[in-house]
Write a structure and sequence with these properties.
Blueprint (H helix, E strand, L loop, with lengths): L1 E2 L4 E2 L1 H9 L18 H19 L6 H6 L6 E4 L13 H5 L4 E4 L8 H4 L7 H22 L1 H22 L10 H17 L5 H16 L5 H20 L5 H27 L1
Antiparallel strand pairs: 1-2, 3-4
Amino acid sequence: MNDAAVGFHCPDCVAEGRRTTRQARTAYGGLHAGSVGLVSKTLIAINAAVWALIMATGGQASAWVYRLAMIPRGVCVATDHPGNVYPQVTSGAQCSVAPDGSWVGTAAGDWWQPLTATFTHVEVLHIGFNMLALWILGPQLEMVLGRLRFTALYLLSGLVGSAAVYWLSPGDTPTLGASGAIFGLMAALLVVAHKQRADVSQLMIWIGINAALTFFASGISWQGHVGGFVGGLALAGVLVYSPRASRTTWQVAGFAGVTILVALAFALRTAVLT
């Protein structure tokens, strides 16, 4: 890895992307992007827009936090006072008789939360760190993988992280942030760099620092981070090590398999929680 103005770059990864500029496809089968980092910039813009919406509607007390964040079992919120929670209410039946109570949560039917939670932030440092990481990691992977494969990797890594949260975190605790997807990108860059036989020492240091923060800092969802990282490893492995002769078939099958496993994980956990 080489030092850069912000973070680091994997020289072999970037060189591989540049080497294939004149070709129709990237090193791992994706269509070559004309504008470097377009998907990453779009993802950053979506995250920023959701954060701005939450800030404009009450910040931590915004009703959007409880609609977009992931709450496995569910909580009872007061619709007339956005952000107010009835902590003593532990079921949808009890919530229905609470004053203006609304039961929100993934198992309660808010099926979109595993995805929207990966675009939801409240604290400025939280979104700032995640978007800086996306700005550093995203364009490098886009160049090597292509836009479609990079987008699928990002979103599915985030969903694997959400599945881990769904199974392993407290049922009434809101979890939010792009960290699961970001950890998936870290894992993917590690796989790509290893495939290119690049020096991964600086990348491993960065991953180690983030792992330490995950397990020793308060208020961080280790479930989402570990899930996203494992998902990124598996998905990047499919992209990078699929046989060249039938690469697209293997890649589609691999991503479809992970998607099915994630869907089953959500279905089984919902059955348990309801």
